[in-house]
What we know:
binds nicotinamide-adenine-dinucleotide; three-stranded mixed sheet; alpha/beta; seven-stranded parallel sheet; Rossmann fold; 14 strands; 338 residues
Amino acid sequence: xxxxxxxxxxxxxxxxxxxxxxxxxxxxxxxxxxxxxxxxxxxxxxxxxxxxxxxxxxxxxxxxxxxxxxxxxxxxxxxxxxxxxxxxxxxxxxxxxxxxxxxxxxxxxxxxxxxxxxxxxxxxxxxxxxxxxxxxxxxxxxxxxxxxxxxxxxxxxxxxxxxxxxxxxxxxxxxxxxxxxxxxxxxxxxxxxxxxxxxxxxxxxxxxxxxxxxxxxxxxxxxxxxxxxxxxxxxxxxxxxxxxxxxxxxxxxxxxxxxxxxxxxxxxxxxxxxxxxxxxxxxxxxxxxxxxxxxxxxxxxxxxxxxxxxxxxxxxxxxxxxxxxxxxxxxxxxxxxx
Length: 338
Ligand code: NAD
C-alpha cells in the first residue's frame, strides 16, 4: 500500500480527487490542508474513511512539512494546495507568492530529501516504491490566445496575472528539480474545472447563487472571454492516470475541448434553472444577467490541445459539458436551497 499525500484536499479539486482515489485505489490518503477560506470544512471534518487521514497544516511551514514527511514516509504526492482565485491575486498578490511558490518549494525540497540520496540516486527504502510528485497546475501559465490556436505542452509560458505568474514560477521550480536532481516529478496544466464543491466565488457557483437569490448575475466586460471547461471528476481521473503512468519529467495539458464564452455559460445555467426551478414571477433567470466592469488584464481565451495525454496515456473525459453542468447545477441547488 502506498502512502499518498494530497495537499489542498479540502478544496474543490482536492476533495473530489480524494473521493476518486478512495474509490479507485487501495492506498492510504493523507489530506494536508491549511483550511483557508477556500476549504470545504464539511469535507475536511465530516468526510470519514478508514483509508483517509486529515492533517491541518501549512505547506509554507518548512519545519512542519519536514516532520510530517519524516513521520509518514509518503511516497506519492498530489500537490494541489494553492491560492487559486485570480481576482484575489489582483487584490492581494503576496499570499499567492508565499503559498504557490514558497509552499511548493518546501514540498519539493522535503520530498527530494526524503526520497533521494543524491542527484539521480534514490535511497534504498524508496528504490522499489517508485516515488512520484505530481504538481497540479493550470493552463493560465500560457497566457491568453486570440480566436485561433491551442495551448500545447511546448507553448512558451506567458502568465499575465499574479495567480498565473505564481503557478508558472512553481512549475519552473518543479522542472528545475527534474533536470538538476533527476527528481521524479510530473506536471499537469489543466483548463477551467467545474463541478460540486467549487467555492462560491468562482463563475459557475456565482451564476447559480445570484440567480436563485434574485440578485444581478455579474458578467465581466462583454462576456466574450472564452474558457475551456472540464468536469472535475474527469480532471481527477487524468491526475490519477498521470501519477500512475507518466514518465518522470513530462508535462501534460488536460482539457475537455469545451470552449465556451462566459456569457454563454451564464445563459446555459439560466436555461437549466428555468426548467428545474422556475422563478415565481415566470420571468427567465437570464433577465438578471448584468455586465460589470472587466477584470484588469482579463485574458481573452484559453484552449487546451489534450492530444498528448489522450494518445500517450489513453485518457478521455467521460462527461460532456451538457451532462456535467446538469449534475453541477443539481448539486448547487441542493446546497443553496437547504
Ligand atoms: P481551491 O482554492 O478550491 O482549494 C485550495 C485548497 O488549498 C484549499 O482547501 C485551501 O485551504 C488549501 N490551501 C491554501 N493554502 C494552503 C497552504 N498554505 N497550506 C495548505 N493548504 C493550503 O483550489 P482548486 O480550484 O481546488 O485548485 C486546486 C489546484 O488545482 C490549484 O493548485 C490550482 O492552481 C489548480 N488548478 C485549478 C483549476 C480550477 O479550475 N479550479 C484549473 C487548473 C488547475
